[in-house]
Design brief:
Layout: E1 13-15, E2 23-25, E3 29-31, H1 48-59, E4 64-71, E5 83-84, H2 88-103, E6 107-113, E7 143-144, E8 158-159, H3 162-181, E9 186-191, H4 196-201, H5 216-233, E10 240-245, H6 256-269, E11 274-278, H7 296-305, E12 312-316, H8 322-330, E13 336-339, H9 341-345, H10 349-356
Parallel strand pairs: 3-4, 3-13, 4-5, 4-6, 6-9, 7-8, 9-10, 10-11, 11-12, 12-13
Antiparallel strand pairs: 1-2
Helix pairs in contact: 1-2, 3-5, 6-7
Bound molecules: flavin mononucleotide.
């Protein structure tokens, strides 16, 4: 609870859990997952880059960090330079990362993903974004819901049969077990931005005629199976989250009514505790918005759709003004804000924002070592 003269952004937030214990974050700032393409040996193992990057952000005062898209198997990685969660070496590097994040007072979530037809991509680094990485540069044959290419420059996928789909569902569960062993407090399932689960849910891409295509129920099936498989192994004391593209911004694609319907189903019947609202990423469209708080309305619509549940709703997109974030929370549009690029520009965004919002010096969530930084200056 907060009173009028205290910041809501810097009040604690509890994510509910099936066993009722809950996970309490020190504040309502969440690092949005952002691929670093910093795995040197193409082996999915976190490097010094990840430690310094996430380490600075944890020291900067975030309530929770969501670690970037992490492949549940090698074929599901977005690029050859992505993190994985399918080997002992990867698990142990994650444990090291989580341990440092915890030492700074932040919680740690990991975004588990299978990129489907957008896997094996070129890393989005200066001058080289776009399309499939060639086999000689570490690329691989991808799998998907159809045998089509997902977008210009991407190789056609091998269409998944039922056994292939079941294997991926099982890979999500095995990765969740490893995430638990690595010490993660939460998982965020990546069902947004045009990757496999989004490819399955959106009628724009999923043209299957079996039980994984066609009706709302059939297109939701893969997401529900993944959620159920993870919930079966993920501790009841830990929250389970999902990131969703609330709309495809294209007629005939996903819209907020359809995605809110699925989120209600997942929260009420499948053990989802946290919904992170994004949009688009499946097909190119000029309607994709940008600018300050560009998903705020979608976040508020999702929050309303889930108002009779105890799910936490966060929203991402163009949030960099502490005052805007504070207003979004104070007016109950959402429960938390996900911050992406602003955290790359300034890993200490929460400490800076807290000072600007008038949080007393002793409550500014800065690392002890930075206590004398004069955050108000
Ligand atoms: C470098 C970079 C990498 C990203 N990688 C991911 C990712 O791994 N998973 C994801 O869901 N979104 C990813 N995104 C999208 C961000 O999480 C976020 O949704 C987007 O940047 C909009 O939020 P912002 O305006 O706060 O940056 C990435 C964005 C950037 C800039």
């Amino acid at each position: 609870m907060t009173t009028d003269n205290r910041s809501t952004l810097f009040s604690p937030l509890t994510l509910s859990t099936p066993d009722g214990t809950g996970l309490t974050l020190r504040n309502r700032t969440i690092l949005s997952p952002m691929c670093q393409y910093a795995v040197n040996r193409q082996d999915g193992v976190a490097t010094d880059w990840h430690l310094q990057h996430y380490g600075a952000i944890a020291a900067g005062g975030f309530g929770m960090l969501t670690i970037e898209s992490t492949g549940v198997n090698p074929v599901g990685r977005i690029s050859p330079y992505d993190l994985g969660m399918y080997s002992d070496e990867q698990e142990s590097a994650h444990r090291h990362l989580v341990s440092f994040i915890h030492s700074q007072g932040a919680a740690a979530a990991v975004q588990l993903n299978h990129a489907g037809g957008r896997a094996s991509g070129k890393p989005w680094l200066p001058g080289i974004h776009g399309g499939s990485a060639p086999l000689e540069e570490g690329g691989w044959q991808t799998v998907g819901m159809t045998d089509q290419s997902i977008a210009e420059g991407y190789r056609p996928t091998t269409k998944l049969d039922k056994a292939g789909i079941a294997q991926i569902v099982s890979d999500f569960a095995v990765a969740a077990r490893r995430a638990d062993a690595a010490g993660y407090d939460a998982i965020q399932i990546h069902a947004a931005h045009g990757y496999l689960l989004h490819q399955a849910f959106s009628p724009l891409i999923n043209t299957r005629t079996d039980e994984y295509g066609g009706s709302f129920e059939n297109r939701s099936r893969l997401i529900c199976e993944v959620v159920d498989a993870i919930r079966a192994v993920w501790p009841g004391s830990k929250p389970l989250g999902i990131r969703i593209s609330a709309t495809d911004w294209v007629k005939g694609g996903l819209d907020i009514e359809t995605t809110a319907r699925l989120m209600r189903e997942l929260v009420k019947h499948h053990g989802i505790n946290w919904v992170d609202v994004s949009s688009g990423g499946l097909v190119n469209t000029p309607l994709q918005p940008s600018g300050p708080g560009f998903h705020a309305v979608l976040g508020a619509q999702m929050k309303q759709a889930l108002a009779d549940t105890d799910a936490v709703v966060s929203v991402v997109g163009g949030i960099s003004s502490p005052e805007q974030a504070e207003t979004m929370l104070r007016t109950h549009q959402v429960d938390a804000v996900s911050i992406g690029r602003a955290a790359m520009r300034n890993p200490h965004w929460p400490a800076m924002a807290a000072a600007r919002l008038g949080v007393p010096r002793e409550d500014i969530p800065a690392a002890a070592q930075y206590w004398r930084a004069e955050w108000n200056s």
